[in-house]
UniProtKB/TrEMBL annotation:
It holds the Pfam family CUE. It comes from Aspergillus viridinutans. This is CUE domain-containing protein. Residues 300-322, 384-420, 538-558, 589-700 are annotated as: Disordered. Residues 302-314, 679-693 have a biased composition (Basic residues). It comes from the Eukaryota. Residues 332-375 form the CUE domain. Residues 626-648 have a biased composition (Gly residues). SMART domains: CUE. GO terms for molecular function: ubiquitin binding. InterPro entries: ASCC2, ASCC2_CUE, CUE, UBA-like_sf. PANTHER family: ACTIVATING SIGNAL COINTEGRATOR 1 COMPLEX SUBUNIT 2, ACTIVATING SIGNAL COINTEGRATOR 1 COMPLEX SUBUNIT 2 ASC-1 COMPLEX SUBUNIT P100. CDD domains: CUE_ASCC2 (cd14364). Residues 401-416 have a biased composition (Pro residues).
Length: 700
């Protein structure tokens, strides 16, 4: 059978401190090499050799214990330390899952708990522990039972908190139960373990020890609600047991903190239980939850919620040192510090500054007192290695930075970018008059460039004729004499509305115009159908089912109610009927032609008269509704008023309203009172006064 080189266990911290750095690096290399050989071994070699090798399990056990209980940096920091932890995890996984019989040492609760401390919050570790529990739950349960008995025995001692191992073991069980809930269920089985923790809580007043106990109880109770088969009845039994031991609800209950009050005040166990009872309601659990809520309100003064301390970020708001920074210290004082440090190099610069402040910046006096050892007690108690603080701010700008000698010649500035314009491509008529002589460009002249050149010679020169002609034609093509003038020849108002002009309107006006035209076209369509067959607008079921009504609905897109309502409103509005008659008559001769002119409403102002019921607002603007003549509508000159109207005096047996009933008596009376001030004798007197004023004479 093939043999593998044995693995030496990890030495304790006392031995590690005596090992040099180079030797420790060689240890790490050897461990990584030997672990890699075991991890990569074949299945047959692993089953026959590795699983039976005691040095392998001994090394893994010592590695996890040392890494979990000590803060040795050699096992935590560095690339080799990380590689070693990874190799240990892979080999442990293979021993627990692939070996025919896993070493009993690797199934011990202490090794599993230390392993959980080495890989905190690792999902791979939780999966490994779950699979290991499925394969070796009997061995792990037996180990946990031994741990329970050991902790109960140690906590039963008169002073259990003195033993640090008890706290360490309880922490390992807590971490293991958090990563593997079945372990917590094993711890909560029975009442002896939790009763022992409750008694230890009452007998020990140390805060850190109580926190360890409460954390173990919390993890154990919450593990009863996890897994495929939650054990709610056991959880309620344990809470009832803690409630009875605390004397909750009894008149003899003491007002003091208990493990139950600490548990419900500093953790979320009641919230977890409440969420579970919402899904799985139970009368017993709801009553217990209600009583525990009341007990928590009574015990809030003794406890506070356990929360993880957040790491505070350094905002530069610490306590300001009373010593000046090196940058702000005068050069003379720095020289004094160096004089003292030449004789006493072990003293810090900050401590020497304090000595100089005390002795008035006299380095000889400071050195003399240091040699004699006669410093005052307040100076002897200071930290002699204190250094001057270093400024954390950015260095100030130097007004006189070093410059090269001789000074550098500045490079020419880059040319400014040319400004572009939208008119760059336009043809400039002035460019056509420029000479084509390239030699003459860029020169300033007074007068003509060539005094001997005449107009006849220019016209006779045909060399640039084609180019000049093309430039002139291009300029004329781009020039429009009407661009800056308004042509009002075909204005709609001047022509009378017979010519459709293109006016610049907004989108809202165009939409309104389109809607008005659609409404007019719809009215004309309905009116034509109304003129052809008024019975088509009847409000009965036979008409609604008729074929003409269906075709009218398809043509107009209106419902039966809308079509019938349109007919009713048209019958009530004779003025609208007359307008539609006129429009139909005008469009009958030439539809869409010259006779289809828009209706021009009157622009003269007319005082709106009283409206009758059924008249629309637009009816008052028509000529027929305006007040005619003096006295208002329905009134003639003098007393009598118009024939048939009600404007005259009321006779015996008569009525104030006319025969047609067009005028409201109250309105007529009001208008009569209003017209008194501007009619009859009042007007004659005012006119006579105007004539006398124009003549400039006195009345005879």
């Amino acid at each position: 059978m093939e043999k593998l080189p044995p693995l030496a266990p990890v030495p304790p911290p006392a031995v590690q401190r005596s090992i040099s750095h180079e030797e420790w690096e060689s240890f790490l290399d050897a461990w990584i090499l030997l672990l890699g050989i075991r991890i990569e071994a074949s299945d047959s070699v692993f089953k026959d050799v590795v699983s039976k090798d005691e040095s392998t399990s001994g090394f893994l056990s010592s590695f996890y214990q040392q890494l979990a209980t000590t803060n040795v940096p050699e096992l935590r920091t560095g690339a080799k330390a990380r590689t070693l932890r990874k190799c240990c995890f892979l080999l442990t996984r293979r021993l627990l899952l692939d070996a025919p019989t896993s070493p009993s040492e690797m199934l011990d609760w202490s090794v599993l708990g230390a392993m959980c401390c080495c890989y905190p919050s690792s999902s791979a570790l939780k999966r490994l522990l779950s699979e290991a529990w499925d394969r070796h739950h009997e061995a792990i349960t037996s180990s946990l039972e031994k741990a329970k008995s050991l902790i109960i025995k140690r906590l039963s001692l008169p002073n259990p908190s003195v033993n640090v191992e008890v706290m360490s073991d309880i922490r390992f069980l807590t971490i293991l139960s958090s990563a593997l809930p079945p372990c917590g269920q094993v711890l909560m089985a029975g009442s002896d373990f939790i009763d022992t923790l409750s008694d230890a809580y009452q007998s020990e007043k140390r805060v850190d020890f109580r926190k360890v106990l409460v954390a173990n109880v919390y993890v154990g109770l919450t593990s009863l609600l996890k897994g495929a088969k939650p054990n709610l009845s056991l959880l309620l039994d344990q809470l009832f047991s803690l409630k009875a031991s605390a004397g909750v609800g009894t008149p003899t209950a003491k007002r003091e903190p208990t493990i139950l009050s600490d548990l419900i005040c500093s953790s979320d166990i009641l919230a977890r239980l409440e969420r579970y009872l919402i899904v799985h309601p139970q009368k017993r659990g709801e009553d217990l939850l209600s009583s525990l809520h009341s007990y928590r309100n009574e015990s809030k003064a003794f406890h506070h919620r356990y929360q993880k301390q957040r790491k505070k970020t350094d905002k530069g708001k610490g306590r300001v040192s009373d010593l000046p920074t090196v940058e702000n210290m005068h050069v003379h004082r720095i020289s004094l510090v160096t004089q003292v440090q030449d004789l006493f190099p072990d003293l810090g610069s900050g401590y020497i500054i304090r000595l100089l402040d005390h002795y008035g910046d006299n380095p000889e006096t400071v050195v003399a007192h240091l040699l004699d050892g006669s410093l005052p007690p307040e100076l002897q108690e200071l930290d002699q290695s204190e250094q001057l603080p270093v400024s954390q701010t950015t260095p100030r700008h130097d007004p006189l930075p070093p410059r090269p000698t001789p000074p550098e010649i500045p490079s020419p500035p880059a040319p400014a970018p040319a400004r572009k314009n939208i008119f760059d491509t336009d043809v400039d008529l002035a460019e056509l008059a420029r000479s084509a002589d390239q030699a003459s460009q860029g020169k300033l002249r007074f007068g003509r460039a060539d005094s001997d050149l005449t107009a006849d010679a220019i016209l006779a020169d045909r060399r640039q004729h084609a180019v000049n002609k093309a430039a002139i034609m291009s300029a004329l093509a781009t020039f429009d004499s009407d661009d800056d003038e308004r042509d009002d020849t075909y204005d709609v108002a001047d022509v009378g509305g017979t010519v459709d002009g293109l006016t610049a309107v907004t989108d809202a006006e165009a939409d309104a115009d389109i809607r008005n035209r659609r409404a007019e076209d719809l009215d004309m369509t309905l009116f034509q159908a109304y003129k052809a067959n008024p019975a088509l607008f009847a409000r009965d079921s036979a008409t609604r089912r008729s074929q003409p009504r269906a075709s009218l609905k398809r043509e107009t897109g209106m419902t039966d109610e809308a079509i019938e309502g349109w007919g009713v409103m048209l019958a009530r509005d004779p003025k609208r009927l007359a307008r539609l008659e006129d429009r139909l008559a005008m469009s009958a001769g030439a539809p869409g032609g010259a006779l289809a002119q828009p209706e021009l409403p009157p622009t003269a102002y007319r005082k709106p008269g009283p409206r009758e019921d059924g008249e629309s607002d637009s009816d008052t603007d028509q000529p027929g509704s305006a007040s005619g003549g003096r006295g208002g509508p329905g009134q003639g000159r003098g007393r009598g008023g118009r024939r048939g109207g009600g404007g005259g005096r009321a006779r015996r047996g008569g009525t104030n309203a006319g025969a047609s009933g067009e005028q409201n008596p109250a309105v007529a009376r009001q208008k009569k009172e209003e017209n008194k001030a501007s009619r009859a004798n009042h007007n004659r007197r005012q006119q006579r006064a105007r004539k006398i004023a124009r003549g400039g004479g006195m009345p005879g």
